[in-house]
Amino acid sequence: MSRRPRKDVPAQGAARPTVSVCRGCCCGTEKIPGVDHAAQLARLRSGLEGSATVRAVECLDACEQGNVIVVQPSAEGRRAGGRPVWLGLVNDEHAEQDVITWASAGGPGIADAPDILDLYVFQPSRRVRAGLETP
User: Fold this and answer.
1) Which InterPro entries match (predicted)?
2) What is the chain written as a DSSP string?
């Protein structure tokens, strides 16, 4: 084992949180009735403009939780211990606004999520997480 001190490794990753919105086989389709999926994505993009990156992604393979949103930490948030948070059944404007409020404040590792979002948090399988959560 080397006795040399470790050099500080520059932080890698996004400068701001990333909000990934599932728009695959179930989420974002008529399979989740009563939701204007295009408007949901537009509200998230508008509400997070300048403070978080919003991206529509293919199926996240957690269809039983549709609509799924994953809030990923910024590089600073990851250094502070933040990890991606998976939210399921995000099918109303109040939950969307809570996501906007949290991500705008810095997201995982930087700001505490509104308590109500605890009702939406779920843990997908490791296989599913690995597809999105690569640092």
Assistant:
1) Thioredoxin-like_sf (IPR036249)
2) ---SPPPPPPP-S-SS-EEEEE-SSSTTSTTSTT--HHHHHHHHHHHHTTTSEEEEES--S-GGG-S-EEEEPPHHHHHTT---EEE----SHHHHHHHHHHHHTT-TTTSPPPGGGGGTB----HHHHHTT---
Q: Tens digits of per-residue pLDDT, 40-84? A: 999 999 999 999 999 999 988 888 999 999 999 999 999 999 999
Q: Give the pLDDT confidence of 59-71 residue by residue, as tens digits.
A: 888 889 999 999 9
